[in-house]
Amino acid sequence: MTLVRVLRERWSHDPLVEGETIDLNNLSADIFRNFECKKGCISIFEAADPALAPRIAIAIAALRKGLDDVHYCTVPNNDFTELALEEDRSVKGETPDGVVNQLHFDVRNLSARGLSRLVEICAARGETHTIRAREVKSVLARMIADGSIQEAVIQPSLKKVLFA
Predict the structure, then answer these.
(1) 38-82 pLDDT per residue, tens
(2) Domain ranges (residues) in the chain
(3) φ and ψ at 85, to 5 degrees?
(4) H or E stretch at 71
(5) 3-class DSSP state of 52
(6) Closest of 152, 141, 43, 158 to residue 96, by C-alpha
(7) Pairwise CA distance, residues 164 & 117, whole Å
(8) How many whole angstroms separate alpha carbon 84 and alpha carbon 107?
(9) Pure H helices in the chain
C-alpha cells in the first residue's frame, strides 16, 4: 500500500543515507504548508497499487480554480502505520473521481507533535512527484470525455482553461 498526500508546492532536500533521519531543525517551516489541518484533521489517500497515485493527484487538481503543476508525495504504508495516528475511514473523498474518493481517509485528532512526525516521515521516507500542467490538462480533458470524473464538480474557471 502507498499513501498519497497532494502538496501545495514541491519540496526537496539532500538525499538521506540509509538509517539517517531528517532533523526538523534543518527543514524550513514552509514544509508544513503542504499539510494543512482543519480542526486537527488531515486528508490522506491510500492506494493498493502505486500506479493510482497520479490519478489521485489529478483528481485533487480537478478541484482547483486554475491549471498548474501538481506535486504529491508518496509514502509506504508501513512507514505511516508506525505513527499510530487515528484514522477515520468512514469519510470518503470529495473529488470528482469516484474511484479516488474510495481511497480517501482522514487522520483525526492530530496533535502538533503528530503532524510534525507525519511531516518528518514524508520528508525522510516519502518520494515527491510532479505532474506538469500540460499533462494535467490532457488527462483531465480525457477523463471528463470518458466520464471518469464528474464535470459538474469542476470549477468553471478550470473548465475554461481545459477546453480553450
Answers:
(1) 888 999 999 888 889 999 999 999 998 999 999 888 888 877 777
(2) 2-162
(3) -90, 155
(4) strand 70-76
(5) helix
(6) 152
(7) 43
(8) 10
(9) 53-61, 77-81, 98-101, 112-125, 133-145, 156-162
